Fold each of these.
Amino acid sequence: MNNDVLKSRMPLILFGAYFIYSSAVALLIQLVILPHFLPQIHLGHGLCIGDAMSIHEWAGEAAAKMREQGWAAWDLYPQSQLTGGIASVFYYLIASEPWAMIPYNAFLHASAGVLLYLILKRIGLSSLPAGMGSMVFVLNPTSLEWVAQMQKDGMFILGNYLVFWGVIGREANTWKAYTSRMIPVAVLASFCFYLSRPYWYQILSVILLGLIPVLLIHAFFNGRDGRESFNLLHWKIMVGSFCCLVCFWAADQGLVQREIQAGNPRLTFRYVPEVPIQIEMKQSATQQSATQQSATQQSATQQSATQQRKGDNILAETPSWTGGYYAKKDDFNWIEKKKVSCPFQKWEKTGFFPDFIERRMFTIWSTRGSPLLTPGGSKVDRDADLSSFWKIIAYLPRAVQVGWLSPFPDLWTGQGSSAAMTLVRPMVGAMTLVCWLFLAMALGFVWKNRSRVEVLSLLYLCVGAVAIFALVYPVVGTLIRFRYGFYMVGVSLGIAFLVEKIMLWQKSKSESVLTKEENPSRMTK
């Protein structure tokens, strides 16, 4: 097999290798390592994460119902959990065990690895460095949380890599060919987000809109004439972004209608004034009595929204755009039995920006509150005040720092939120140090290729996505999983750049030796 044939078949070869590796490691973890070597963190059925165990139980119940009633009983959202709906199909067709999901998870992970390889090649790296970069993405132990367990991150990462590949990673000779290839990619990415995190439609749309001024600034500073330097590649990136925006808008509108019809919208970044978002909070008997007295003065609709009971828990509204319940700090002391800062202070309107912009900022701020109210010891900046547009903008540099440099050293040791998290903390610390090194190398590659619009576009998309997640999810354990696809673009880029530098050094060394052998007279002088 000559070199050209090998390069043309490299994506297929990588996919096969990544799929086999992911499947084998997932089977080893579920059937051997957890039950026999790490029983202290094994929850049963090859799982070690509480969320994955809950999904397994819901999927098992849904599969049992399907066996009794057939496909008509299939529910895509059992217990309002889409991952459970997907898992129930595999449980029904194969077996009601998590290992039945391994081929599905391995396929998603291997596909994302191949797409990353193609993206790295598109921005100027050769086959071997790009392959090494994508290999690190696949081999990173963090990915085992969704490859060997039951999480939806594999589908989410695949959707984002499809967008990157479509917008900056596709080459076509004509506009018709480019557009005809871009539309199916955007549709497939929309489907991936629908099955993983539907709220990403709106966020990624905003990020893609922000790509337009980035392209204009790049064209102005990197051409002899700002008007002439806006070339075909700039236009293709804009058209690819537009195709994604149209698909995301259509998919998001469909989700809005489905949620309104269901009357029970899930927590998203979307502002839904018709149905207030709710959180669950526990109160003492005295607080419950005060809440009940206050509720009697409200309308019947408000009473039903604020006094639904489940044991000693009640549902209380988060702040709505027009007002609502604003919790006090002391109301949340029960969560960790120590004072925590409540993120639900009153929102400060600027009165300067259009309402739709300020509402987007408002939803970022209000959604940030839910992760801060969950148990766990990996929260950062819990006291940060982001209760206005300008406060969020001022926090963005810190969000980039948290998003790309966390976990910080204080989370490399000590007690985690679970036995599994405690066990992996030292390993996470060691990996973080290595990742910092490769991220620094990635910055070197970006600086060297700063005049290339595809490199700048990829950097902007990844930095913007990680900053948004750092704003909304100030819990490092969750942030590591959510940011993985974007974060590993930087790490893989740094590794690929290092490999390319080593290859160039070896090549120059070999050429130097060959030159000396061909000209021995130079050595005698």
Amino acid sequence: MNRYRLTDKLIRYRHIVRIVTKYGFGIIVEKTHLGKIFRIPVRKKKREDLSAPVRVRKMLEELGPTFVKLGQILSTRPDLVPLPYIKELENLQDNTYSFPFEMISGVFLSETGKRIEDVFSDFEEIPFASASISQVHKAAYRGKKVAVKIQKPGIEDLVQVDMAIMYDIAGLIEKFIKEAEIYRPVNIVREFEKALERELDFSLEARNIERFRKNFESEPGVLVPMVYFSVSTRRVLTLEFVGGIKINRIDELDRAGIDRKKISEIGLASFMKQIFVDGFFHADPHPANLLVTSDCRLCFIDFGIVGRISEERRLEIAGLLRGLTEGNISDVMESLESMGALKEDTDSKGFREEMEEMLDRYKDMPIKDIDVNRLIEEVFSLMRRYHIWIPSNFTLLVKTLATLEGIGLSLNPDFSLSSGIKPYLARVMFERMKINNLFKDFLSLSSAMSRIVREFPSSLDSFLKMIRKGYINIAFEHKGLHDLISTIDKASNRLSFSLIIAALIISSALIMVSGAGPFILGYPALGVVGFVVSAIFGIGLIIDIVRHRNM
């Protein structure tokens, strides 16, 4: 059941329509017929004193916390938003107003069942940081300095109303503005809703932080604050307080005697580890979320937005990035195809030709001189033109890398993301070729083949039942059917033979691992015999296939 009243939604609707119109986007109101519904005149004239990207930013800021968050998330989507808008959306400022201490203490009491003064020996009533959905206070807990992040009152209710309106407007845009259909506005809103739900749940952020701490516990150059779970809930997050300098305050870093080159190297190594080793990375590394401590360590804060990359996806991403930096169009196309980005209706030939032409401009350029930000923008601009969609986690990764390059260059003029990333791309490829990974792939393939064989009788039975019931009509014209039957018979024999060989290899491997006797030259005899027999069978099968020219 919705917590908001219909009247709340209607009042908020009118407010949104007025602001959208105020900033010169009345065409959207007009085409979606919202102006008629709410009887609000549409302003035809744009505000000529401001560019369109600036007007979008100001509009989102005036619309409030939910829309500010939408803009911030869209700033991480170069596949959807052109570069001039991304640059402007990166300047979005969270509403910095803060709630009175009495209201914040009420949230704390309702969440923990305890009063602030009964938990903390000291608590600063004026927050030292205030964002759109929360504010952060310094406090003392069990003799330690802590930062207490508390969600602002009423935010969840406002978000719920705004999300309902966003879905309405996205649906109207898809219905009435055909040129916007390719951007799938409803899907964008759905992705945004999931991201916002995660940000509103501080317990998820606490688990993210704890995972980062474990990943970096053996890295002396990286600091991740400790979570005090006993004083953390869904709307309250208590962390170890870390004092430091924001990474973009170059003058302060120099006055503190910080080695900026060292910090840039720590930052690069830490993100490469997050992306290509852990598969779990901080996806919002703007300067406010990266602090440098007095002992020259890099501290990560605010883990509301994180990216996750599976092992398989890491290989695809490594192939794509390697293809882009080395100008190898085949690697690029193969990786995009693996990601499912190239659909049946995609003009793959046209895209390939334009992509190849673009990469040719970078081919002979020294890798350290490649401007990753520019390369990324050109690639995504091309993808937008050809309506090529890639996983949102990949766009988060790309935006993270682009931000990392900007920060790295501000710290160290000789910083090169392209050079730094290359060894990790090679490492991912090498790891994939290790024997244990190949063996895992083989086991996975064998399992899939075994499942197909097991399910074949029931699938065939279902298929025949559908034919009998008239759901499927098949007309046969006999032309060389005997040869077809003979071919199918040979293929099924080879498949069965392959499964036997696979079973021999797997069982032999298990015997070798178990170390069961008797032994030949120090190795389990049954395992050795199994490998020899499977090798003979495998060679025989290959010879038979080659002899009949069926490879």
Amino acid sequence: MTQPDARFTATDPSRPSANAFWEPIIINKKQIAEQAERLLSLDVNDPVERQVRIVHPMACERGQGMAPGIEVRLSVLKPGERTRPFRHNATEVGFCIDGGGAIHIGGKAFSFETYDVWNTPSWSSTWYENNTRKPHIRLTYSNAALLRLLNVHLVEDKKITGITPDEKAQDHKASASDSVKIKDVFVLPGSDNWLMSYERLINPPAVQSDPHLWPWQDVKGELDKLTALGAKYRGRRLYLLYNPLTGRTNGTTPSFFATMTVRPPNIIDRPHRHASAAINYYFSGSGYSRVAGKHYEWTAGDLMLSAPGWAIHNHASHDNGPVYELTIQDQPFHIWQESLLWQESLAAPPSLLGTQAGFETNREEVFASCLVNGTTAEPSALSVAERNELVALAVKTVKGRVPVVAATGSQSLAETLQLSQFAEKAGADAQLVVTPYYIKPPQRGLERYFTEVFSKLKTPAMVYHIPGRAGVSMDVATFRAVKSRCANLVGVKHASTDLAFVTELLATLGSDFRIFAGLEELCFPMMAIGAAGMMNAVGNLDPQRVSALHTAIEAGDLARARTLHFELFEVSRAIFFETNPIPLKYMMKRCGVIPNNEHRPPMAPPTEQMERRLDEVLKGCGLI
């Protein structure tokens, strides 16, 4: 049997590649409507046949994508129709552009309406039905085009995939009698190089991949708040429809992100470019794009390959009302590939997103300062080096836009001095030092301790007063004594229910002494009697409402503040359903703020029962 011969070609990887950009194309609203009518008129054996791929003229026969590796399908269903179930190893994003219906994914059913978005995990049995009285039209974005180019797009068919029914699957674990002991994952001695066994290679840790649906009306409510950023804002007014499964790659699926954008009238983006390709569907308003030097006009109902990879482009809205658009981009795939070069400003060099630092915008800060190594960071479980590293990173990231407050307290005077002096040298603007915990010192010991620490610092300092955790309270007289010897003692974070203490402290040290509310449930009453602000953990979950609460109190609008207090009350109480930050970290992960819910022993993640309880709180507060 003969085989084809391999070719050897000269190459120089340092020379620029001859990339052939796919020119932008616009499939206008009329073309989409005509195709939809044609599909609805077909006499088909199965409604799953009422769909068509939208293929770029430069696409090869195997790929058939609207952009390289990105398949886009237009599908319709008549009222009462349903498709047969199928599954394949592609991940997909669905978007309803007219009508409504339901999708059944892996045994879960989601009802959708116009402009709703959902994701379909790989290898999930999927079928659609139109249970409404009018036809529905939807777009599907899939990585099937890429899989076809790799010759591994597998649709469920025993002849092709060799499927073994679940009930017949076997567990091929090694028996206890095996004599050879194999290490799963380990470091080669004397190096930082790792090896992994075959058994671990073919059995990586499983990550649950769930379908999600993002209702348009809920997303629109959040988007419309971004119009307040003003015409000078340089970033994009958008939200990613984030799937926590994707973690650091910021995706809706492992291949694509889906973002919803609002563009107020007459907004013009800065020209920029990125290695990932982008496809936009505009469903309100009109505007134009400039891509690789060419001008393209678009309007509501148009579908556009709006940003071929690495083509310089920008978008702008006309003055006839806001633009709303869905953008599909293969950014997560590129982050995993370490290929996502992104140039946010043509005046600055590109960055390799995912491995290098990204870009800043001029978005107004929600908060007046940044607190590092507070309770949520579990500082008692961190080493001195780790706490210092976090302070340095915060200072570098914030870049002077807001003050950085470093929590530098410990049980040990020596360790507190070490942490505080490092933070000052690293550029922290102020220190927050907790009363030494567990040892329960007398008031004269606290006076000496804080005097010793604050006298060695030039930056402003505050006491973290948290009797419930530290096991010790600090008297007003002790505050007065330290203040008389250390002018840089400027305030206190008061995490206690004792409101009389707040009044007495202000009466003794004056209104310039800054008291910050440290208990979420008491922020409103504590600020109402004179506290300067709050150090509020709920700000990690709902920064807009927490900031609005502060603003309302400062403005004397107590009616508005009271309303916000009640809106935040349940989630504020939930922080303490278990030891903080156990509930908070779970809720942060659930809301997509952090990718993982990690704790260091003796702390631990919440139980499943607690997770369900916290989910109900988040739903009630509109956070999920």
